[in-house]
Amino acid sequence: MKKLSFFLIIFLLVLASATYLYYNHWHSAQRAEEASPYIPQSAALVYEVADFGKQWEHFRQMPMAKTLNQVPGFSAIQHGFSFLKNLVEAPQSLDKVPLTVSVHGLGEERLGCIFYFNTHDAATRRILEAITLKIKKEKAYSETVRKCAGYKITELSTHGATQPLSYIK
User: Fold this and answer.
1) Phi, psi of 102 (to 5 degrees)
2) Of the four, 47, 91, 102, 124, which is 20 to 30 A from 18 by CA?
3) For residue 73, what pLDDT is reported?
4) Would the pLDDT of 57 be above 80?
5) 88-116: buried (b, 16+ CB within 10 Å) or exposed (e) per residue?
6) Helices 72-87/122-137 angle, 10° precision
7) pLDDT-based confidence at residue 72 (cuts at 50, 70, 90)
8) Residues 116, 38: contact at Cβ < 8 Å?
């Protein structure tokens, strides 16, 4: 009887461990699938941030950020973040928004970046709604909507901007 209960306890521990490992694998795969269909195959770097507003401001204070300011691709990322912060009424609302950034080459000497916001997240949806309202109120911004592969892609830009902000619904 003692042997049977010992093997039963071992079996339950192994089963619980396997269940835990399977769940963690499944959960990480689900998170990776949210933005991955849109990320170009040529992406040199993909970075996922849970609360990019806080982490970005912290990173900008570091000495490494001052060095990276000299890299043209990094300044494009900074310009994109600044444009986004100008669109949002309360920039602190970006502190808890999850973001995925992909960096890829546009040529031999140019880097480009794409920001992916999870539109399933409630905080992201609120920010996009606030941005849409601001675009409609102010004439300094333009909004272009197009369809691609069954998705509605919205591009927001200031007049004369070289790099618009786009999002997919």
Assistant:
1) -115, 135
2) 47
3) 67
4) no
5) beeeeebeebbbbbbbbeeeeeebbbbbb
6) 80
7) low
8) yes
For residue 11, the tally of other CB atoms under 10 A from its CB is 10
Which of 144, 86, 78, 87 shows the shortest CA–CA distance to 111? 78
How far is Cα 117 from Cα 100, in angstroms, rounded to an integer? 7
DSSP annotation string for 49-106: ESSHHHHHHHHHTSHHHHHHTTSHHHHHHHHHHHHHHHHSSSGGGGGG--EEEEEEES
pLDDT of 87 strictly over 60 = yes
C-alpha distances (whole Å) from 146 to each of 128, 168, 169 are 17, 10, 11
The residue with tokens 């849409």 is 132
**Domain residues of the chain, as ranges?**
40-139
